[in-house]
Amino acid sequence: MTPTLSLNGTAHIGATRIFGPLSMMAPAGAWTCLLGPSGVGKSTILRLFAGLDEGITFDGDYGASDGGPLMPRVAMMAQDDLLLPWLDVMGNVTLGARMRGERPDHTRARDILARVGLADHAAKPPSALSGGQRQRAALARTLMEDRPIVLLDEPFSALDAQTRARMQRLAGEVLRERTVLHITHDAAEAARLGDQILLMSRDRIDAIAPPEGTSPRAPDAEETLRFEAQLMRRLMADA
Length: 239
Ligand SMILES: Nc1ncnc2c1ncn2[C@@H]1O[C@H](COP(=O)(O)OP(=O)(O)OP(=O)(O)O)[C@@H](O)[C@H]1O
Hints:
239 residues, alpha/beta, Rossmann fold, 3-stranded antiparallel beta sheet, 9 strands, binds adenosine-5'-triphosphate
């Protein structure tokens, strides 16, 4: 089952308040984009949902609407690609299955690698890839995981414009009906992908209604571009 994610409370690291008290929700089966100034605590929220909460003190509650555990149901793509240097690209993409003691599905892995444009790079170590190729390998590993909750921390930031548009569409299609929480600084990306768009400041998170149409929306559709302009104005006004 695909749960809704919710969080309500205040986060500290050491004696420093990072954010809150505030509350947010990422609805079940929808793609939520989370935007906000650098350092406001967006990645901290993702770390909490991913169970990577070491060093964070959270006063409040967060979790899945069905009360079930988060960690076994989460796939996360961190800001840093975290590819293991001693494994080739195929080894990295199939790492999750091997760590769980399962037989990796190499056919599915090859298909995903082809879809992210890395079919010819499967046997290469991460050190032989460009920054954008590494990011696509990390995306392939996340898509490979097939989890109901997917956390993405600036997953397309290193990609050129055309590749970014292709990868946004691919992720939007592959992750349809998952609960996706996606941090981005890119208003165009939020306009294209968001079913819900959240704007975060240190003390609140506001939800903004998305443009019409189902995501992933055409990047050059009039409504997408108009929404992007509105969102940019809002982000500039909040800065
Ligand atoms: N280990 C740490 N010790 C102290 N402060 C930390 C630590 N890790 C993060 N922080 C602080 O927590 C705050 C929130 O960081 P976080 O990475 O969640 O922000 P963010 O909104 O994702 O930023 P960005 O958009 O730049 O990635 C920042 O101000 C950062 O300096």
